[in-house]
Amino acid sequence: MKNKALRFTLFGCVALTLVLTAACGSNNGNNTGESGNKTNDSATTNNAPTDNTSAEKPAEEIDYYKFKEPVDVVFAKSVFDVKVYPEGEDPGNNAVYKMIEQTTNIKPTNKFAVPYENYRERIKLGIASNDLPDIFFAEQADVDQLIKNDMLEDLKPIYDKYATDKTKQIAGYKDGLLFSGAQREDKIYGMPNVSDSLNGSPVVYIRKDWMDKLGAQMPKTFEELIALAKRFAKEDPDGDGKPDTYGLSMNNQLDLKFTALMNAYGAYPKVYVKDADGKLNYGSLNPNMKQGLTMLAELYKEGVIDKEFVTKDMPKSMELVSQGKVGILIGEFFSPLWPLQDVPKNVKGADFVSMPMPGLGGSEYQPNVPINVSGYFVVRKGFAHPEALMVLLNNLAETSYSNLDNAWAKAWSELNKDPKYANASINNWLPVFNDRPDANTNRYNLFTDALKSGTDQNMPADQRVTFQNVKKGKEGDAANWPWYKTFLEGVPNASSYKTIVYNGWFGSATETGKLKGASLLDLENQTFIKIIVGKSPVDSFDDFAKQYNDLGGKQILDEMNAVLATQK
Protein backbone atom coordinates (compact mmCIF):
# COMPACT_ATOMS: atom_id res chain seq x y z
CA MET A 1 0.00 0.00 0.00
CA LYS A 2 1.22 3.51 -0.71
CA ASN A 3 2.03 6.15 1.87
CA LYS A 4 0.02 4.55 4.61
CA ALA A 5 2.62 5.21 7.33
CA LEU A 6 1.52 7.36 10.25
CA ARG A 7 -2.12 7.05 9.38
CA PHE A 8 -3.71 5.32 12.32
CA THR A 9 -6.47 5.26 14.87
CA LEU A 10 -5.76 5.42 18.56
CA PHE A 11 -7.42 2.40 20.14
CA GLY A 12 -8.33 3.15 23.75
CA CYS A 13 -5.43 2.09 25.94
CA VAL A 14 -3.36 0.55 23.16
CA ALA A 15 0.09 2.17 23.03
CA LEU A 16 0.88 4.51 20.16
CA THR A 17 1.83 2.71 16.94
CA LEU A 18 3.66 4.79 14.38
CA VAL A 19 3.12 2.52 11.41
CA LEU A 20 -0.28 0.95 10.96
CA THR A 21 -1.42 0.05 7.48
CA ALA A 22 -4.63 1.88 6.80
CA ALA A 23 -6.31 -1.42 6.05
CA CYS A 24 -5.87 -2.01 9.78
CA GLY A 25 -7.19 -5.39 10.83
CA SER A 26 -8.81 -6.05 7.50
CA ASN A 27 -5.72 -7.32 5.78
CA ASN A 28 -3.51 -7.94 8.72
CA GLY A 29 -3.05 -11.40 9.91
CA ASN A 30 0.04 -13.40 10.48
CA ASN A 31 1.64 -16.23 8.63
CA THR A 32 1.63 -19.96 8.93
CA GLY A 33 1.16 -20.59 5.25
CA GLU A 34 -1.97 -21.82 3.56
CA SER A 35 -4.93 -23.57 5.08
CA GLY A 36 -8.48 -23.98 3.98
CA ASN A 37 -10.14 -24.77 0.70
CA LYS A 38 -9.92 -23.22 -2.72
CA THR A 39 -13.30 -21.91 -3.86
CA ASN A 40 -15.43 -22.87 -0.90
CA ASP A 41 -19.19 -23.16 -1.30
CA SER A 42 -19.35 -25.40 1.71
CA ALA A 43 -22.45 -24.14 3.52
CA THR A 44 -25.10 -24.48 0.87
CA THR A 45 -28.11 -24.91 3.11
CA ASN A 46 -30.36 -21.99 3.89
CA ASN A 47 -28.64 -20.99 7.10
CA ALA A 48 -28.79 -17.19 6.96
CA PRO A 49 -29.78 -15.27 10.07
CA THR A 50 -33.38 -16.22 9.59
CA ASP A 51 -36.47 -14.13 8.82
CA ASN A 52 -38.76 -16.73 7.23
CA THR A 53 -41.43 -14.58 5.68
CA SER A 54 -43.48 -17.11 3.75
CA ALA A 55 -47.24 -17.07 4.28
CA GLU A 56 -47.08 -20.63 5.60
CA LYS A 57 -44.86 -19.81 8.59
CA PRO A 58 -44.83 -16.91 11.01
CA ALA A 59 -41.90 -14.57 10.49
CA GLU A 60 -38.89 -15.27 12.65
CA GLU A 61 -36.83 -12.45 14.07
CA ILE A 62 -33.44 -12.11 12.40
CA ASP A 63 -30.42 -12.73 14.58
CA TYR A 64 -28.04 -10.13 13.16
CA TYR A 65 -25.08 -11.41 15.16
CA LYS A 66 -25.10 -15.20 14.87
CA PHE A 67 -25.97 -17.96 12.43
CA LYS A 68 -28.40 -20.65 13.50
CA GLU A 69 -26.05 -23.42 12.34
CA PRO A 70 -22.27 -23.43 11.71
CA VAL A 71 -21.06 -21.79 8.50
CA ASP A 72 -17.59 -22.29 7.00
CA VAL A 73 -16.00 -19.10 5.67
CA VAL A 74 -12.61 -18.86 3.98
CA PHE A 75 -10.72 -15.60 4.46
CA ALA A 76 -7.44 -14.09 3.25
CA LYS A 77 -4.98 -12.79 5.81
CA SER A 78 -1.89 -10.63 5.74
CA VAL A 79 0.99 -10.66 8.16
CA PHE A 80 2.35 -8.11 10.57
CA ASP A 81 4.35 -10.33 12.88
CA VAL A 82 3.79 -14.04 13.37
CA LYS A 83 5.87 -13.91 16.55
CA VAL A 84 3.02 -12.24 18.45
CA TYR A 85 1.09 -15.53 18.50
CA PRO A 86 1.60 -17.46 21.74
CA GLU A 87 2.89 -21.00 21.55
CA GLY A 88 0.28 -23.31 20.06
CA GLU A 89 -1.53 -20.53 18.17
CA ASP A 90 -1.17 -19.26 14.62
CA PRO A 91 -3.15 -17.21 12.08
CA GLY A 92 -5.53 -20.09 11.38
CA ASN A 93 -5.81 -21.48 14.90
CA ASN A 94 -6.03 -18.89 17.63
CA ALA A 95 -8.19 -17.48 20.39
CA VAL A 96 -9.73 -14.82 18.16
CA TYR A 97 -10.87 -17.36 15.55
CA LYS A 98 -12.27 -19.53 18.32
CA MET A 99 -14.12 -16.53 19.75
CA ILE A 100 -15.62 -15.84 16.32
CA GLU A 101 -16.82 -19.42 16.01
CA GLN A 102 -18.31 -19.45 19.51
CA THR A 103 -20.12 -16.14 19.22
CA THR A 104 -21.26 -16.17 15.57
CA ASN A 105 -21.26 -19.82 14.41
CA ILE A 106 -18.89 -18.71 11.65
CA LYS A 107 -16.00 -21.16 11.37
CA PRO A 108 -13.09 -19.19 9.88
CA THR A 109 -10.21 -20.67 7.89
CA ASN A 110 -7.58 -18.96 5.77
CA LYS A 111 -7.03 -19.56 2.08
CA PHE A 112 -3.64 -17.95 2.63
CA ALA A 113 -1.81 -15.94 5.28
CA VAL A 114 1.12 -13.93 3.94
CA PRO A 115 2.98 -10.66 4.61
CA TYR A 116 1.10 -7.70 3.19
CA GLU A 117 3.78 -7.05 0.59
CA ASN A 118 2.73 -10.42 -0.87
CA TYR A 119 -0.97 -10.11 -0.10
CA ARG A 120 -2.00 -8.11 -3.16
CA GLU A 121 -0.06 -10.45 -5.42
CA ARG A 122 -2.03 -13.39 -4.04
CA ILE A 123 -5.30 -11.52 -4.63
CA LYS A 124 -4.25 -10.77 -8.18
CA LEU A 125 -3.43 -14.43 -8.75
CA GLY A 126 -6.84 -15.32 -7.35
CA ILE A 127 -8.50 -12.92 -9.78
CA ALA A 128 -6.55 -14.37 -12.72
CA SER A 129 -7.36 -17.98 -11.80
CA ASN A 130 -10.88 -17.33 -10.44
CA ASP A 131 -9.78 -18.89 -7.16
CA LEU A 132 -10.68 -16.41 -4.44
CA PRO A 133 -11.40 -16.52 -0.71
CA ASP A 134 -15.04 -16.20 0.32
CA ILE A 135 -14.55 -12.87 2.11
CA PHE A 136 -11.44 -10.73 1.77
CA PHE A 137 -10.00 -7.23 1.76
CA ALA A 138 -9.27 -5.62 -1.60
CA GLU A 139 -7.64 -2.33 -2.47
CA GLN A 140 -9.34 0.01 -4.91
CA ALA A 141 -7.51 -1.20 -8.02
CA ASP A 142 -8.43 -4.81 -7.25
CA VAL A 143 -12.02 -3.87 -6.47
CA ASP A 144 -12.27 -2.20 -9.86
CA GLN A 145 -10.87 -5.30 -11.59
CA LEU A 146 -13.12 -7.66 -9.63
CA ILE A 147 -16.20 -5.63 -10.54
CA LYS A 148 -15.14 -5.47 -14.17
CA ASN A 149 -14.74 -9.27 -14.19
CA ASP A 150 -18.13 -9.78 -12.49
CA MET A 151 -16.49 -11.68 -9.62
CA LEU A 152 -18.17 -10.01 -6.63
CA GLU A 153 -21.53 -10.31 -4.94
CA ASP A 154 -23.74 -7.22 -4.94
CA LEU A 155 -24.03 -6.51 -1.22
CA LYS A 156 -26.79 -3.92 -1.44
CA PRO A 157 -29.63 -6.39 -0.66
CA ILE A 158 -27.56 -7.95 2.12
CA TYR A 159 -26.70 -4.55 3.56
CA ASP A 160 -30.29 -3.38 3.47
CA LYS A 161 -31.58 -6.54 5.11
CA TYR A 162 -28.91 -7.57 7.62
CA ALA A 163 -26.84 -4.53 8.56
CA THR A 164 -27.70 -3.14 11.97
CA ASP A 165 -28.18 0.57 12.63
CA LYS A 166 -24.67 0.77 14.12
CA THR A 167 -23.12 -0.89 11.09
CA LYS A 168 -25.00 1.54 8.87
CA GLN A 169 -23.86 4.41 11.06
CA ILE A 170 -20.24 3.41 10.37
CA ALA A 171 -20.44 2.44 6.68
CA GLY A 172 -22.99 5.12 5.80
CA TYR A 173 -20.94 7.95 7.32
CA LYS A 174 -21.04 11.23 5.36
CA ASP A 175 -24.23 10.23 3.51
CA GLY A 176 -22.73 7.10 2.00
CA LEU A 177 -19.53 8.75 0.72
CA LEU A 178 -17.44 5.86 2.03
CA PHE A 179 -19.07 3.44 -0.43
CA SER A 180 -18.01 5.50 -3.45
CA GLY A 181 -15.13 3.30 -4.61
CA ALA A 182 -17.24 0.12 -4.61
CA GLN A 183 -20.55 1.53 -5.82
CA ARG A 184 -21.84 1.20 -9.36
CA GLU A 185 -25.24 2.78 -9.91
CA ASP A 186 -27.51 1.13 -7.31
CA LYS A 187 -25.18 -1.76 -6.54
CA ILE A 188 -22.63 -2.03 -3.72
CA TYR A 189 -19.77 -4.46 -4.23
CA GLY A 190 -17.87 -3.89 -1.01
CA MET A 191 -18.08 -2.68 2.56
CA PRO A 192 -15.64 0.14 3.32
CA ASN A 193 -12.70 -0.50 5.61
CA VAL A 194 -13.02 2.61 7.74
CA SER A 195 -10.51 4.48 9.86
CA ASP A 196 -11.04 7.63 11.92
CA SER A 197 -12.45 10.48 9.84
CA LEU A 198 -10.09 12.95 11.54
CA ASN A 199 -6.99 11.35 10.03
CA GLY A 200 -5.54 13.89 7.62
CA SER A 201 -7.41 16.86 9.10
CA PRO A 202 -4.82 19.60 9.79
CA VAL A 203 -4.10 20.94 13.26
CA VAL A 204 -1.61 23.74 13.91
CA TYR A 205 0.78 23.34 16.86
CA ILE A 206 2.63 26.46 18.02
CA ARG A 207 5.45 26.82 20.54
CA LYS A 208 3.67 28.68 23.34
CA ASP A 209 6.91 29.38 25.22
CA TRP A 210 8.28 31.10 22.11
CA MET A 211 5.11 33.16 21.74
CA ASP A 212 5.36 34.23 25.37
CA LYS A 213 9.01 35.24 24.98
CA LEU A 214 8.25 37.33 21.89
CA GLY A 215 5.04 38.78 23.33
CA ALA A 216 3.12 37.35 20.39
CA GLN A 217 -0.60 36.66 20.25
CA MET A 218 -2.41 33.63 18.86
CA PRO A 219 -2.92 34.16 15.13
CA LYS A 220 -6.48 34.62 13.98
CA THR A 221 -5.87 34.64 10.23
CA PHE A 222 -3.63 32.78 7.83
CA GLU A 223 -1.59 35.93 7.28
CA GLU A 224 -1.01 36.29 11.02
CA LEU A 225 0.12 32.66 11.21
CA ILE A 226 2.71 33.24 8.47
CA ALA A 227 3.85 36.47 10.15
CA LEU A 228 4.35 34.54 13.40
CA ALA A 229 6.40 31.92 11.54
CA LYS A 230 8.68 34.69 10.28
CA ARG A 231 9.17 36.03 13.81
CA PHE A 232 10.07 32.57 15.07
CA ALA A 233 12.80 32.34 12.42
CA LYS A 234 14.20 35.84 12.84
CA GLU A 235 13.86 36.89 16.48
CA ASP A 236 15.86 34.17 18.27
CA PRO A 237 12.98 32.76 20.33
CA ASP A 238 15.19 30.08 21.91
CA GLY A 239 17.58 32.75 23.17
CA ASP A 240 20.83 31.07 22.14
CA GLY A 241 22.00 33.99 20.01
CA LYS A 242 22.18 31.83 16.87
CA PRO A 243 20.05 31.91 13.68
CA ASP A 244 19.06 28.28 14.15
CA THR A 245 15.27 28.36 14.54
CA TYR A 246 12.62 27.88 11.88
CA GLY A 247 9.05 29.05 11.59
CA LEU A 248 7.54 26.11 9.71
CA SER A 249 8.37 22.45 9.16
CA MET A 250 8.51 21.22 5.56
CA ASN A 251 9.76 18.09 3.80
CA ASN A 252 10.45 16.96 0.25
CA GLN A 253 7.36 14.75 0.11
CA LEU A 254 5.12 17.83 -0.01
CA ASP A 255 2.68 16.10 2.29
CA LEU A 256 0.00 17.38 4.68
CA LYS A 257 1.99 20.50 5.63
CA PHE A 258 2.24 21.63 2.02
CA THR A 259 -1.33 20.62 1.21
CA ALA A 260 -2.74 22.48 4.22
CA LEU A 261 -0.93 25.68 3.23
CA MET A 262 -2.16 25.46 -0.37
CA ASN A 263 -5.72 24.80 0.83
CA ALA A 264 -5.74 28.25 2.40
CA TYR A 265 -5.54 29.67 -1.13
CA GLY A 266 -8.36 27.46 -2.39
CA ALA A 267 -5.96 25.12 -4.18
CA TYR A 268 -6.09 21.36 -3.64
CA PRO A 269 -2.91 19.63 -4.83
CA LYS A 270 -2.86 15.96 -5.80
CA VAL A 271 -6.64 15.52 -5.69
CA TYR A 272 -9.45 15.90 -8.22
CA VAL A 273 -12.10 18.50 -7.44
CA LYS A 274 -15.54 18.65 -9.02
CA ASP A 275 -16.67 21.91 -10.60
CA ALA A 276 -20.20 23.27 -10.67
CA ASP A 277 -21.07 20.98 -13.58
CA GLY A 278 -19.87 17.90 -11.72
CA LYS A 279 -16.75 17.48 -13.86
CA LEU A 280 -13.36 16.81 -12.33
CA ASN A 281 -10.42 19.18 -12.45
CA TYR A 282 -6.93 18.41 -11.18
CA GLY A 283 -6.30 20.50 -8.07
CA SER A 284 -2.56 20.85 -8.63
CA LEU A 285 -3.25 22.85 -11.79
CA ASN A 286 -5.49 25.37 -10.04
CA PRO A 287 -4.05 28.87 -10.79
CA ASN A 288 -4.36 29.68 -7.06
CA MET A 289 -1.40 27.35 -6.53
CA LYS A 290 0.81 30.20 -7.74
CA GLN A 291 -0.13 32.32 -4.73
CA GLY A 292 0.75 29.54 -2.34
CA LEU A 293 4.01 28.75 -4.09
CA THR A 294 4.92 32.46 -4.09
CA MET A 295 4.39 32.54 -0.33
CA LEU A 296 6.54 29.45 0.26
CA ALA A 297 9.31 30.77 -2.02
CA GLU A 298 9.39 33.93 0.07
CA LEU A 299 9.55 31.95 3.34
CA TYR A 300 12.34 29.77 1.97
CA LYS A 301 14.36 32.80 0.84
CA GLU A 302 14.00 34.40 4.27
CA GLY A 303 15.10 31.24 6.11
CA VAL A 304 11.70 30.59 7.67
CA ILE A 305 11.83 27.04 6.23
CA ASP A 306 14.80 24.73 6.68
CA LYS A 307 17.05 25.23 3.64
CA GLU A 308 17.81 21.49 3.68
CA PHE A 309 14.16 20.36 3.50
CA VAL A 310 14.68 19.20 -0.10
CA THR A 311 16.95 16.40 1.19
CA LYS A 312 14.61 15.27 3.98
CA ASP A 313 11.61 12.98 3.92
CA MET A 314 8.92 13.36 6.57
CA PRO A 315 10.55 11.33 9.40
CA LYS A 316 13.94 13.01 8.81
CA SER A 317 12.37 16.48 8.85
CA MET A 318 10.82 15.72 12.24
CA GLU A 319 14.27 15.64 13.82
CA LEU A 320 14.38 19.44 13.84
CA VAL A 321 10.93 19.49 15.44
CA SER A 322 11.98 17.02 18.15
CA GLN A 323 15.10 19.07 18.83
CA GLY A 324 12.91 22.10 19.54
CA LYS A 325 14.05 24.13 16.54
CA VAL A 326 10.67 24.61 14.81
CA GLY A 327 8.02 27.03 16.03
CA ILE A 328 4.98 25.86 14.06
CA LEU A 329 4.08 22.32 13.05
CA ILE A 330 1.10 21.69 10.81
CA GLY A 331 0.22 18.20 11.94
CA GLU A 332 -2.74 16.06 12.94
CA PHE A 333 -4.69 15.49 16.11
CA PHE A 334 -2.23 12.82 17.30
CA SER A 335 0.94 14.90 16.70
CA PRO A 336 1.48 15.43 20.47
CA LEU A 337 2.09 11.68 20.70
CA TRP A 338 4.59 11.94 17.84
CA PRO A 339 6.75 13.88 17.18
CA LEU A 340 5.97 16.56 19.75
CA GLN A 341 6.28 14.34 22.81
CA ASP A 342 10.08 14.59 22.64
CA VAL A 343 10.30 18.37 22.55
CA PRO A 344 9.82 19.04 26.31
CA LYS A 345 12.30 16.23 26.98
CA ASN A 346 14.90 17.96 24.83
CA VAL A 347 14.08 21.58 25.65
CA LYS A 348 13.30 22.63 29.20
CA GLY A 349 10.14 24.72 29.39
CA ALA A 350 8.94 23.91 25.88
CA ASP A 351 5.16 23.99 25.56
CA PHE A 352 2.62 23.92 22.75
CA VAL A 353 -0.75 25.42 22.04
CA SER A 354 -2.90 24.21 19.17
CA MET A 355 -5.58 25.61 16.88
CA PRO A 356 -7.39 24.79 13.64
CA MET A 357 -5.79 26.04 10.45
CA PRO A 358 -7.01 29.64 9.93
CA GLY A 359 -8.39 30.97 6.68
CA LEU A 360 -6.93 33.57 4.37
CA GLY A 361 -8.03 37.03 5.44
CA GLY A 362 -10.19 35.51 8.16
CA SER A 363 -12.31 33.60 5.65
CA GLU A 364 -13.50 30.04 6.24
CA TYR A 365 -10.71 27.51 5.88
CA GLN A 366 -11.80 24.48 3.85
CA PRO A 367 -9.26 21.63 4.02
CA ASN A 368 -8.89 18.62 1.81
CA VAL A 369 -9.26 15.55 4.02
CA PRO A 370 -9.15 11.95 2.76
CA ILE A 371 -12.27 9.86 3.18
CA ASN A 372 -10.08 7.40 5.14
CA VAL A 373 -11.21 4.26 3.35
CA SER A 374 -8.20 2.10 2.53
CA GLY A 375 -10.17 -0.47 0.55
CA TYR A 376 -13.19 -2.73 0.83
CA PHE A 377 -14.27 -6.04 2.28
CA VAL A 378 -15.75 -7.99 -0.58
CA VAL A 379 -17.51 -11.32 -1.11
CA ARG A 380 -16.71 -13.53 -4.06
CA LYS A 381 -19.62 -14.11 -6.38
CA GLY A 382 -21.34 -17.41 -5.72
CA PHE A 383 -20.51 -17.70 -2.03
CA ALA A 384 -23.57 -19.19 -0.36
CA HIS A 385 -23.59 -16.91 2.67
CA PRO A 386 -22.58 -13.35 1.77
CA GLU A 387 -24.49 -12.20 4.86
CA ALA A 388 -21.60 -13.64 6.91
CA LEU A 389 -19.72 -10.43 6.21
CA MET A 390 -22.57 -8.40 7.67
CA VAL A 391 -22.73 -10.66 10.74
CA LEU A 392 -19.05 -9.95 11.39
CA LEU A 393 -19.40 -6.21 10.80
CA ASN A 394 -22.49 -6.07 13.03
CA ASN A 395 -20.53 -7.62 15.88
CA LEU A 396 -17.57 -5.33 15.29
CA ALA A 397 -19.92 -2.35 15.39
CA GLU A 398 -21.20 -3.45 18.80
CA THR A 399 -17.60 -3.64 20.00
CA SER A 400 -16.85 -0.18 18.57
CA TYR A 401 -19.79 1.19 20.49
CA SER A 402 -18.68 -0.72 23.62
CA ASN A 403 -21.87 -2.72 23.97
CA LEU A 404 -20.93 -5.34 26.55
CA ASP A 405 -24.39 -6.91 26.36
CA ASN A 406 -23.33 -8.30 23.01
CA ALA A 407 -21.73 -11.76 23.21
CA TRP A 408 -18.91 -10.91 20.79
CA ALA A 409 -18.12 -7.59 22.50
CA LYS A 410 -18.13 -9.27 25.90
CA ALA A 411 -15.81 -12.05 24.71
CA TRP A 412 -13.55 -9.52 23.00
CA SER A 413 -13.28 -7.52 26.21
CA GLU A 414 -12.26 -10.64 28.13
CA LEU A 415 -9.62 -11.54 25.55
CA ASN A 416 -8.12 -8.07 25.83
CA LYS A 417 -7.86 -8.48 29.60
CA ASP A 418 -5.96 -11.78 29.31
CA PRO A 419 -2.24 -11.18 30.08
CA LYS A 420 -1.40 -13.84 27.51
CA TYR A 421 -2.50 -11.43 24.76
CA ALA A 422 -1.42 -8.16 26.37
CA ASN A 423 1.18 -7.32 23.72
CA ALA A 424 -0.18 -9.37 20.84
CA SER A 425 -2.24 -6.65 19.08
CA ILE A 426 -5.06 -9.11 18.70
CA ASN A 427 -7.17 -6.72 16.65
CA ASN A 428 -4.70 -7.62 13.88
CA TRP A 429 -5.79 -11.25 14.14
CA LEU A 430 -9.34 -10.46 13.03
CA PRO A 431 -10.16 -11.48 9.44
CA VAL A 432 -12.36 -8.39 9.11
CA PHE A 433 -11.91 -5.14 10.98
CA ASN A 434 -13.56 -1.73 11.22
CA ASP A 435 -13.52 1.17 13.61
CA ARG A 436 -15.98 4.00 14.07
CA PRO A 437 -15.26 6.97 11.80
CA ASP A 438 -16.02 9.15 14.83
CA ALA A 439 -13.97 7.00 17.22
CA ASN A 440 -11.75 9.75 18.57
CA THR A 441 -14.49 12.36 18.61
CA ASN A 442 -16.42 9.90 20.76
CA ARG A 443 -13.40 9.55 23.07
CA TYR A 444 -13.22 13.33 23.39
CA ASN A 445 -16.88 13.40 24.47
CA LEU A 446 -16.38 10.53 26.91
CA PHE A 447 -13.32 12.14 28.46
CA THR A 448 -14.77 15.64 28.79
CA ASP A 449 -17.93 14.23 30.40
CA ALA A 450 -15.82 12.21 32.86
CA LEU A 451 -13.75 15.26 33.76
CA LYS A 452 -16.92 17.24 34.45
CA SER A 453 -18.54 14.50 36.52
CA GLY A 454 -15.34 13.55 38.32
CA THR A 455 -15.75 9.83 37.62
CA ASP A 456 -14.95 7.42 34.82
CA GLN A 457 -17.36 4.75 36.05
CA ASN A 458 -19.88 5.58 33.33
CA MET A 459 -17.19 5.06 30.70
CA PRO A 460 -16.57 1.75 28.89
CA ALA A 461 -13.79 -0.12 30.67
CA ASP A 462 -11.59 -0.26 27.57
CA GLN A 463 -11.34 3.55 27.55
CA ARG A 464 -10.39 4.10 31.18
CA VAL A 465 -6.63 3.65 30.91
CA THR A 466 -6.42 6.26 28.14
CA PHE A 467 -8.69 8.54 30.13
CA GLN A 468 -6.45 8.27 33.18
CA ASN A 469 -3.49 9.28 30.99
CA VAL A 470 -5.50 12.25 29.71
CA LYS A 471 -6.51 13.23 33.25
CA LYS A 472 -2.94 13.07 34.53
CA GLY A 473 -1.76 15.16 31.58
CA LYS A 474 -4.40 17.79 32.26
CA GLU A 475 -3.28 17.92 35.89
CA GLY A 476 0.28 18.68 34.81
CA ASP A 477 1.96 15.29 34.75
CA ALA A 478 4.87 15.72 32.32
CA ALA A 479 4.82 12.10 31.14
CA ASN A 480 1.16 12.28 30.09
CA TRP A 481 0.81 15.75 28.58
CA PRO A 482 0.72 14.31 25.00
CA TRP A 483 -2.46 12.34 25.83
CA TYR A 484 -4.15 15.47 27.14
CA LYS A 485 -3.08 17.52 24.14
CA THR A 486 -4.15 14.80 21.71
CA PHE A 487 -7.65 14.13 22.99
CA LEU A 488 -8.71 17.39 24.60
CA GLU A 489 -7.10 19.80 22.13
CA GLY A 490 -6.08 17.96 18.96
CA VAL A 491 -9.37 16.15 18.41
CA PRO A 492 -11.71 19.16 18.75
CA ASN A 493 -9.41 21.27 16.55
CA ALA A 494 -9.32 18.60 13.85
CA SER A 495 -13.11 18.26 13.91
CA SER A 496 -13.87 21.99 13.85
CA TYR A 497 -13.97 22.57 10.08
CA LYS A 498 -17.44 23.19 8.71
CA THR A 499 -16.62 22.44 5.09
CA ILE A 500 -14.41 19.57 3.93
CA VAL A 501 -13.19 19.14 0.35
CA TYR A 502 -12.94 15.48 -0.64
CA ASN A 503 -11.19 13.96 -3.58
CA GLY A 504 -13.77 13.62 -6.35
CA TRP A 505 -12.11 10.52 -7.87
CA PHE A 506 -12.57 7.25 -6.01
CA GLY A 507 -11.50 4.80 -8.68
CA SER A 508 -8.09 3.30 -9.39
CA ALA A 509 -5.71 4.67 -11.99
CA THR A 510 -7.04 4.99 -15.53
CA GLU A 511 -5.20 3.38 -18.43
CA THR A 512 -3.18 6.54 -19.07
CA GLY A 513 -2.73 7.01 -15.34
CA LYS A 514 -1.12 3.59 -15.04
CA LEU A 515 1.34 4.46 -17.79
CA LYS A 516 2.12 8.07 -16.98
CA GLY A 517 0.84 8.85 -13.48
CA ALA A 518 4.15 8.27 -11.68
CA SER A 519 6.19 10.39 -14.09
CA LEU A 520 3.61 13.17 -13.97
CA LEU A 521 3.64 13.18 -10.18
CA ASP A 522 7.42 13.37 -10.21
CA LEU A 523 7.25 16.29 -12.64
CA GLU A 524 4.79 18.02 -10.33
CA ASN A 525 6.85 17.57 -7.17
CA GLN A 526 10.10 18.64 -8.83
CA THR A 527 8.46 21.72 -10.36
CA PHE A 528 6.97 22.84 -7.07
CA ILE A 529 10.21 22.27 -5.16
CA LYS A 530 12.23 24.21 -7.75
CA ILE A 531 9.82 27.13 -7.42
CA ILE A 532 9.97 27.05 -3.62
CA VAL A 533 13.80 27.00 -3.48
CA GLY A 534 14.12 29.70 -6.16
CA LYS A 535 15.58 27.58 -8.93
CA SER A 536 12.56 28.38 -11.13
CA PRO A 537 10.38 31.50 -11.20
CA VAL A 538 6.81 31.27 -9.98
CA ASP A 539 5.57 31.93 -13.53
CA SER A 540 7.09 28.60 -14.56
CA PHE A 541 3.94 27.12 -13.01
CA ASP A 542 2.08 28.07 -16.21
CA ASP A 543 4.56 26.15 -18.34
CA PHE A 544 4.28 23.21 -15.95
CA ALA A 545 0.48 23.17 -16.23
CA LYS A 546 0.66 23.03 -20.04
CA GLN A 547 3.39 20.39 -19.98
CA TYR A 548 1.47 18.30 -17.45
CA ASN A 549 -1.61 18.25 -19.65
CA ASP A 550 0.36 17.62 -22.84
CA LEU A 551 2.21 14.66 -21.31
CA GLY A 552 -0.99 12.87 -20.37
CA GLY A 553 -2.66 14.85 -17.60
CA LYS A 554 -5.53 15.97 -19.79
CA GLN A 555 -6.01 12.45 -21.12
CA ILE A 556 -6.19 11.09 -17.55
CA LEU A 557 -8.76 13.72 -16.65
CA ASP A 558 -10.82 12.94 -19.77
CA GLU A 559 -10.76 9.23 -18.92
CA MET A 560 -11.90 9.90 -15.37
CA ASN A 561 -14.76 12.16 -16.48
CA ALA A 562 -15.82 9.55 -19.04
CA VAL A 563 -16.02 6.92 -16.30
CA LEU A 564 -18.05 9.25 -14.07
CA ALA A 565 -20.44 9.96 -16.94
CA THR A 566 -21.22 6.24 -17.26
CA GLN A 567 -21.94 5.95 -13.53
CA LYS A 568 -24.63 8.65 -13.42
TrEMBL record:
Biased composition (Low complexity): 27-40
Region (Disordered), start-end ranges: 27-57
Database matches in Gene3D superfamilies: Periplasmic binding protein-like II
Keywords carried by this UniProt record: Cell membrane, Lipoprotein, Membrane, Palmitate, Signal
Taxonomic superkingdom: Bacteria
Biased composition (Polar residues): 41-55
Keyword Cell membrane: yes
Cleavable signal peptide: 1-22
KW Membrane (keyword) present: yes
Pfam families hit by this protein: SBP_bac_8
This protein's name: Extracellular solute-binding protein
Organism of derivation: Paenibacillus lignilyticus
Lineage of source species: Bacteria, Bacillati, Bacillota, Bacilli, Bacillales
